[in-house]
Amino acid sequence: MKVAVVGSTGMVGQVMLKVLEERNFPVTELIPVASEKSVGKKVKYKQKEFTIVSMKDAIAAKPDIAIFSAGGSTSLEFAPLFAEAGVTVIDNSSAWRMDPDKKLVVPEINADVLTKEDKIIANPNCSTIQLVMVLGPLNKKYDLKRVVVSTYQSVTGTGKAAVDQLNGEISGNETEKVYPYQIFKNALPHCDVFADDDYTKEEIKLMKEPKKILGDDTFNLTATAVRVPVQGGHSESVNIEFENEFELDEVRKILSETPGVVVMDDVKNNHYPMPLYSEGKDEVFVGRIRRDLSQPKTLNLWIVADNLRKGAATNAVQIAEYLVANNLV
User: Fold this and answer.
1) Contact (Cβ atoms closer than 8 angstroms) between residue 317 and residue 23
2) If DSSP codes are grouped into helix, strand and coil, which group holds residue 96?
3) Which of 190, 191, 234, 271 is catalytic?
4) Tens digit of pLDDT for each residue in 72-124?
5) In this structure, how many other beta carbons lie within 10 angstroms of the beta carbon of residue 191?
6) Sheet order of strands, 284-291 included
7) Quick one: which of 24, 41, 188, 247 has the most CB atoms within 10 Å?
8) Of 306, 61, 97, nearest to 201 (Cα)?
9) What parts of the chain have a pLDDT lower than 70?
10) What's the pLDDT at 71?
11) Residues annotated in the binding site, as ranges?
12) Which residues are annotated as a binding site for phosphate?
């Protein structure tokens, strides 16, 4: 199994290499790919060093799978070239997510939509992934009517420069500002750029992607995305109105039986999900499960996941695992 990791020097690319190794994905040949300035440099995988190659050389090598984490413009340009060479691309950027001809996949929720003909597969937005891991099983049982989500997103979602800004501000050192304001001791209601309707691109992704993944556009969803001074792990406060009535014990049971979801919901013992707890883990953690007292058939809960792992790298590798297990590549 020849596997190319495109964007292998970046924050998510590095985690992808780590996840491939940890999950013992059947890599017989690793092809690390990065920008021209990184060609010839080395990356580590399974305690060996591999030389970074160019896009052109990677395409010529005809890997079985190419996992992309190199930004939207790079994906738009190069993913079709890999696909034309017969390579199955799993893309972590936003480039293909809402393309009607491309599948948007969270394996535990909708991997069954994949076929051998899918040569470019989109990995959802990090905040979307952890949200649909909870919405998916609850929608099947109670039928979603309206979802209101507020996010508390880690600086790692922006990249290494944002982590450097936070750490620089903590230590009192001047660093390049990625955000329009300081992030230390602050919260910015500003993830990604603002669109014409005054929502940010991150909020728009959260409002559109779950409907495509769940194959259901009958419910309404609105979002506010906030960047907080946390180094790893995204959190979400979610209010869910259903068409049908629910019981809290049944909700907890459904979620605890959902693969990849861990229920942490014991407030008497201060047991609830936190980004600090999720860091380095692949599961999606859910807690603070309680009835909304202001209106019927409505639930409040709190979802946390490591945005670099399940929110990006792990989900992409799980897609690759599904393809291999089902002879789709």
Assistant:
1) yes
2) coil
3) 234
4) 999 999 999 999 999 999 999 999 999 999 999 999 999 999 999 999 999 99
5) 23
6) 220-227, 144-153, 234-242, 298-305, 284-291, 261-263
7) 188
8) 97
9) none
10) 87
11) 9-12, 37-38, 97, 153, 227, 307
12) 97
Residues 310 and 284: beta-carbon distance below 8 Å = yes
Rounded to whole angstroms, what are the CA distances from 292 to 241, 288, 299? Answer: 9, 11, 5
User: Amino acid identity, residue 126?
Assistant: C
Task: Tell me the backbone φ, ψ of residue 103, rounded to 5 degrees.
Answer: -85, 140
Q: What is the pLDDT of residue 2?
A: 97
Which tokens is 84 given? Answer: 């034309």
* Domains of the chain with CATH codes: 2-124+312-325 (3.40.50.720), 127-307 (3.30.360.10)
159: amino acid identity, one letter:
G
**234: annotated active-site residue:** yes
Residues contacting 200, CB < 8 A, separation 6+: 190, 191, 192, 193, 194, 225
pLDDT of residue 174: 85
Q: What is the largest CA-CA distance in the chain?
A: 60
Cα 199 to Cα 130, 155, 311: the distances in Å are: 20, 19, 21
Residues 130 and 146: their CA atoms lie apart, in Å, by 17
Is 126 one of the catalytic residues?
A: yes
Query: Residue 110 in contact with residue 214, Cβ under 8 Å?
Result: yes
Alpha helices in 95-194 (DSSP H): 107-110, 126-142, 160-171
Between CA 278 and CA 79 the distance in angstroms is 31
Q: Are 121 and 91 in contact (CB under 8 A)?
A: yes
In this predicted structure, what is the pLDDT of residue 308? 97
Cβ neighbours for 85, distance < 8 A, ≥ 6 positions apart: 59, 62
Q: Provide DSSP, 15-55.
A: HHHHHHHHTT---SEEEEE--GGGTT-EEEETTEEEE-B-H
How far CA 211 is from CA of 123, 133, 159, 172, 285, in Å, comes to 14, 13, 27, 43, 21
How far is residue 33's CA from residue 7's CA, in Å, rounded to a whole number? 6
